[in-house]
Write a structure and sequence with these properties.
Layout (H helix, E strand, L loop, with lengths): L19 H7 L3 E2 L5 E5 L1 E3 L2 E8 L2 E8 L4 E4 H6 L4 E8 L5 E14 L2 E11 L5 H4 L5 E4 H4 L3 E5 L4 E5 L12 E4 L1 E2 L5 E7 L2 E8 L7 E3 L1 H9 L6 E6 L3 E2 L2 E2 L3 E13 L2 E10 L6 E2 L1 H4 L2 E6 L4 E6 L8 E3 L2 E6 L2 E8 L3 H4 L7 E5 L2 E2 L5 H10 L8 E8 L2 E8 L1 E4 L1
Parallel strand pairs: 5-10, 6-9, 16-23, 17-22
Antiparallel strand pairs: 1-9, 2-12, 3-4, 4-5, 6-10, 7-8, 8-9, 11-12, 11-24, 13-25, 14-15, 15-16, 15-21, 17-23, 18-21, 18-28, 19-20, 21-22, 24-25, 26-33, 27-28, 28-29, 29-30, 29-31, 31-32
Length: about 400
């Protein structure tokens, strides 16, 4: 079992800011070449897209995130001697905010294409343990991406960057979705869940989950009697740029029909949390070849594999890392974890006789990469500590939603 990917989603970064000056700055930048087409590889880390970029003749690892503006790590900013040009409050996905500096990067090269005079936030990406495990130097965000067309081949882990769709081999059976451009360039769309219209759902490659809507949409669906199959849980549902979010009630519901643009999905699980948490992430997108065109404000979806997300098998808990220890961070109601008495804040001491009473940051990174529990396991024995008392629980993997 991999933390956050199965029970609740992991939201990496959602930046937003106020102020007309910053808004104007985020629209700056250009591609130096007039006609170009290049295909570059990428890799997955924690379900996120990692891309190689060149700055001043050195290569760095960046996350590719349509739901954010550009970011450079504090360390890289110092290495490149980047000077602040302004500062603004920047909000993470859970509402926390900090005043951060913005800077201008003269040139970023991706596959030989030169993106010049682009704006980035300077931020300490190692301050949160999950982000530190990614070993990244920054984020390529939508304010840079909007300068060209991006063709994602998730199956072969390739991205083609070009100035025109005419250079791409696009089959006629694609599905198309119109999107709206946020001030930082982030693409958002109108979706429908069981016929209910939902505004401002972001297509977000900085989110490694499937489809997530806010608890406001959940409440509306319940009130209109458009959602009958769902579960409920309690705890922390994601990690953002400033760390873990707040404890809250969350839901997972079975939507009979989900649609956006020409694309229609039959019977799919949607997560509900937060008040503005409306995202479509990589776990969904990787079933398609996806082409982003900021000029036409349209996204093309070309199906590669049939998307199927209709059942959740789970022990019913998720976990977090703090001060070299593992803790329970969320529990799904009526799951095996819940019925056997697992509670938020319990410290995990051992699972199947493997000692987790104290783990290092490197061990935590290995857990994020490989999972805490082998997917083939159907039953586990867990030792936890609560209020200085030790408890041993036996949990079964069961269907928590179908």
């Amino acid at each position: 079992m991999k933390s956050l990917l199965k029970i609740t989603p992991f939201v990496f970064l959602l930046l937003s800011c106020g102020g007309s000056k910053i808004e104007k700055l985020l629209k700056s930048g250009q591609v130096d070449q007039e006609n170009f087409k290049v295909t570059v590889p990428f890799e997955y880390r924690q379900g996120l897209i990692i891309l190689k970029v060149d700055i001043k003749n050195k290569t760095y690892d960046f996350i590719l995130d349509t739901g954010a503006s550009n970011v450079v790590s504090t360390e890289l900013g110092e290495e490149l001697n980047l000077e602040p040009i302004d500062s603004q409050l920047v909000y993470g996905v859970h509402g926390a905010s900090k005043k951060l500096d913005y800077t201008a990067i003269k040139a970023i090269k991706i596959g030989g294409i030169n993106f010049s005079n682009t704006i980035a936030v300077i931020h300490d990406l190692n301050a949160v343990s999950k982000l530190a495990c990614l070993n990244i130097h920054g984020i390529i965000g939508a304010n840079l991406m909007r300068q060209s067309i991006w063709d994602f081949d998730f199956n072969n882990q390739l991205i083609t960057i070009t100035n025109t769709e005419e250079s791409l081999d696009i089959p006629p059976n694609y599905k198309e979705v119109k999107f709206f451009i946020g001030y930082q360039g982030a693409p958002s769309i109108i979706t429908k869940a069981n016929g209910m219209r939902v505004l401002n759902t972001m297509i977000d490659t900085g989110y490694n989950g499937n489809i997530s809507l806010s608890r406001i949409e959940f409440q509306k669906l319940i009130k209109r009697k458009k959602l009958t199959q769902y579960n409920t849980g309690n705890g922390i549902t994601g990690t953002g740029v400033y760390g873990a979010g707040k404890k809250e009630v969350f839901h997972q519901g079975l939507i009979d029909e989900m649609s956006f643009g020409d694309l229609t999905l039959d019977t799919t699980i949607v997560s509900f949390s937060g008040t503005s948490h409306k995202l479509i992430g990589v776990e969904f997108l990787k079933n398609y070849r996806v082409i982003f065109n900021w000029n036409t404000k349209k996204i093309k979806f070309i199906e590669i594999t049939s998307y199927k997300n209709t059942k959740i098998n789970s022990y019913g808990f998720d976990y977090s890392f703090k001060e070299n220890q593992l803790y329970i961070k969320s529990v799904i109601n009526t799951s095996s974890a819940d019925t056997n008495g697992l509670q938020l804040g319990d410290q995990i001491i051992a699972i199947n006789n493997i000692d987790y009473s104290t783990i290092t940051q490197n061990e935590w990174c290995r857990i994020l990469k490989n999972g805490l529990i082998n997917n083939s396991e159907k039953k586990i024995t867990m030792t936890i500590v609560r209020d200085t008392k030790t408890h041993e629980l036996t949990l079964n993997k069961t269907v928590v939603l179908k």
